[in-house]
Design goal:
Layout lengths: L2 H33 L3 H4 L2 H32 L6 H23 L1
Helix pairs in contact: 1-3, 3-4
Length: about 110
């Protein structure tokens, strides 16, 4: 991989980091929302939905963290034999993170 593509991957890594931070903030807000619910509401469908959203956001965060790690491996490998594997894994995890994030807003 040449330096130009490595630089492009580093920009993507930065963007993934920003997305992780944004999703963590949203997850924290949803956790706070749930925690501030009266106990009867926490045990209701509304509480269950909030917990489901929290779980889905965490799944998206986890996928993004994995994608970021794989992309970092790509950017750091000089002539890594597994470079293509890391890149494909990163893309796959990004796709899963997008699906998890979408399902948390449905």
């Amino acid at each position: 991989m040449n330096n130009k593509r490595r630089a492009a991957i580093r920009k993507v890594i930065d963007k993934i980091g920003e997305l992780i931070n944004e999703l963590e903030e949203l997850k924290n807000e949803e956790e706070e929302y749930f925690d501030n619910m009266p106990e009867p509401l926490q045990d209701s469908e509304r509480g269950d939905a909030a917990l489901e959203h929290i779980d889905q956001l965490q799944d998206a965060i986890d996928e993004l963290c994995g994608a970021k790690a794989d992309a970092q491996c790509c950017a750091e490998c000089a002539d890594c034999v597994q470079e293509e594997t890391h890149l494909h894994a990163a893309v796959s995890q990004l796709e899963e993170a997008i699906e998890d994030a979408k399902s948390s807003v449905e």
